[in-house]
Amino acid sequence: MRRSVAGLLVVAAVACRREEPQPREHAGSAQPGVAVPAAVDAAAADPCPKAEREGSDAPLAWIRDDYAGALACARARAQPLVLDLWAPWCHTCLSMQATVFRDPSMAADAKRFVFASLDTDKDQNAAAVAKFALSAWPTFYVVGRDEAVLSRFVGGGSLAQIHAFLDAGLRGASGGGATGDADAHLLASERALAVKDVAVAVTELTAALAAAPADWVRRPDALVSLEMAKLQAGDAAGCLTIAETELDHTGHAAAASDFLGVAMSCAKARDKAEPARAAALRDKAIAKWRALLADPKAELSTDDRSDAMASLREALDDAGKHDDAKAEAEAQRAMLDDAAAKAPTPLAAMTFNWHRAEVYTYLGRGLDIVPALEKSAADLPDEYDPPARIGWVYMKAKKYPEAAQWFDKALAKMYGPRKARYLGLRADVAHELKDADGEKRFRAEAAELEKRQAGTGH
Hints:
single chain, alpha/beta, five-stranded mixed beta sheet, 19 helices, 7 strands, 7% strand, disordered N terminus
């Protein structure tokens, strides 16, 4: 799953992104501190009444949108707290919640951690989100009872990667610390990234990779973090060097595609200065994406595959191989249609709405996906995302009256930074409809909302 990239990073890198809003980074305040004792007996009185499971077969109970309550629960249980910082527009976030965190193997972790999910678009979570920096959606943290960062993971990951992330957090919580130099440097980098100290993060990530054994399970996500940190620090040339030297050391899960996506951003940043070098890396990335997608052992969910296919066709288009890109898009469309038809719930099917809308539009068939998106909107009347996708499809098809209608439906349910973006899109539609008063009103509403959110740190 590509990560939805924030702040100073080049947007074409990775992610739940493409038409997604540019997230704001927050100043972190988490500091290293007191170790948390090991997990207590699960049979003890439950101090966490707000923890809820989604279905009787769900392995984890989550405390939703209540950071203070979740932290109090973690302190009462003397357990570390796992944070899922997500947003309802982020398909990678939805996929992780519907796949990895619902795997039966997660049941053992229910006895070791308190789990909390925070919708980062909600004002009530702004103060909590401000404690821990977001460089992409989703971002996961393990924190101690003093709010010290014990482990951090960005973007989509395989089950093995998430278990490794949780195990690292538990070692820190129990006072065991890192198991080696690589883990110790990685933890230092995660703490630096939590407070947006990119220079320290680059130093620590470089040291972690230098100290790591060849089979280090966290190597792929450490490499992606290093690429992103280099790019954020303005060192596109250094990022390109990492991409060139580490291309074959990124595993066969979502992080491998993430690595290639950031590599393409590095290449684009250096395209004018070093066109031959950038083109050579792009060709290698295309071959690597194809090999990853053809690998029967690749640990990729449908969402991961769709992300990789979208990135591959973008690289193919950049290379002038438009017929190959179109063929990749057709394969992506067919896969997504099948996955949506087989999804067990309407919410699970919503995971694929953005990719389906985007790939149908790419193929010049955007209006063909409208009936499926309308069904999603009817099945999920409280969700703003389906009508927002329909409005976007109509806007791209230059069907502006229909776009206005569906954007209005979405805006009536929307909140947070997402709403400001869609007010801007609604203003663009009003402009196309020659509605000068409407355009002025929507732009003013967007500006006022952005000002208010900036004042609250959201």
